[in-house]
Amino acid sequence: MATSTGISIVKARTEFAELINRAAYGKERIILSRHGKSVAAIVPMESLKALEAMEKLEEAADRKVLAARRHEATIPWEKARKLLSKSASRKPSR
């Protein structure tokens, strides 16, 4: 498993080549920060490829959900309005 190391962007500028080598060959994830806040990362290519593969799977799942919703029955507005008004009239007042 890759380890993560934090470093400021100012320091990263002076050590850029070393940070790239640590990510590429040491499989280290370098978290870059500005004013103490994490803003970006240098990661090994394997980590990037794994992230992109997960994103593709999520996108495919989202497309399936959207396609399934398109085939669901819809309720005409008049019927929905009646159902909503009945539901609102049943709620106890506070």
SSE blueprint:
Elements: E1 4-8, H1 9-14, H2 16-26, E2 29-34, E3 37-42, H3 45-70, H4 77-90
Properties at a glance:
61% helix; single chain; alpha+beta; YefM-like fold; 94 residues; three-stranded mixed β-sheet; 4 helices
Q: Helix/strand/pairing class, anyone?
A: alpha+beta
Integer average pLDDT: 87
What is the name of the CATH topology? YefM-like fold
Low-confidence spans: none
The CATH class is identified as Alpha Beta
Count of separate structural domains? 1
Q: What's the number of helices?
A: 4
Q: Name the strands of the widest sheet in spatial order.
A: 1-2-3
Cα separation of the termini: 55 Å
Report a brief summary of the structure.
With 94 residues, the protein is α+β, with helices and mostly antiparallel strands.
Word description of this protein:
The chain is α+β, with helices and mostly antiparallel strands and 94 residues long. It has a single domain (4-89), classed as YefM-like fold. 61% of the residues lie in helices and 18% in strands. The chain has four helices and three strands; from the N terminus they run βααββαα. It has helices at 9-14, 16-26, 45-70, 77-90, and strands at 4-8, 29-34, 37-42. The chain has a three-stranded mixed β-sheet with strand order 1-2-3. A hairpin with a 2-residue loop joins strand 2 and strand 3. It is elongated, with a radius of gyration of 25 Å. 3% of the residues are buried. The model has no long low-confidence stretch (mean pLDDT 87).
